[in-house]
Specification:
The chain has 184 residues and is α+β, with helices and mostly antiparallel strands. Helix content is 42%, strand content 22%. It has one domain (3-183). Helix 2 packs antiparallel against helix 4. The N and C termini lie far apart (40 Å).
Length: 184
């Protein structure tokens, strides 16, 4: 039975949260948006693209400063960036996402306490990977066995969206995990 994602009493989508568990309190899986969820996906997955655009804009400013001989540490956002649409978009999208008040419900419709819920668009990530590979001198295609076109017929096509959920207590469990690793 699927877990469901809700926003202010409206069904956004569902997931089995069936990916293998690798970290304490972290659950993940394929995500299938509802018709309403599909219309909200640009907001729900918009934080990643907005932050990438912001960092790209900042890189342009930092590189221009360095080329002009101005020495400065890369800390904070330069004024030119803070005046950009990329900055405004990145600052507003997190507020928009927070205003959705996303809630995860278990199969019995009980709300599950979470620290964070985030979703990603696998099509966008594949496109970014191809773009980066092309910039590095490749042809933007994956090597055999690595690309989406190399899926065996018995392996289903990857889902468009993925959901990641940090359950309540995840941060505390991770701090404990890091302490144990440092003490070894």
């Amino acid at each position: 039975m699927p877990y469901t994602l809700w926003s202010r009493g409206r069904l956004i989508g569902q997931s089995e949260l069936a990916y293998a568990r690798a970290l304490p309190g972290l659950r993940a899986g394929d995500f299938e948006p509802s018709p309403l969820g599909e219309t909200l996906m640009p907001i729900i997955i918009g934080v990643g693209p907005a932050l990438k655009a912001l960092h790209d804009a900042a890189d342009v400013v930092w590189e221009a400063r360095e080329r002009s001989g101005r020495r400065s540490r890369r800390r904070g956002w330069p004024e030119e960036v803070r005046q950009s649409t990329e900055y405004a978009d990145a600052m507003s999208i997190s507020d928009e996402l927070e205003s959705l008040a996303l809630e995860l419900h278990d199969p019995t419709d009980m709300v599950i306490a979470t620290e964070d819920i985030w979703l990603q668009d696998t099509h966008r990530l594949l496109a970014l990977a191809r773009e980066e590979m092309a910039e590095e001198g490749g042809d933007g295609e994956f090597e055999e066995g690595e690309g989406e076109d190399d899926w065996e017929p018995w392996i289903p096509e990857p889902a468009r969206y993925q959901i990641f959920v940090a359950l309540a207590g995840h941060d505390k469990a991770m701090r404990g995990l890091h302490r144990r690793k440092r003490s070894k």
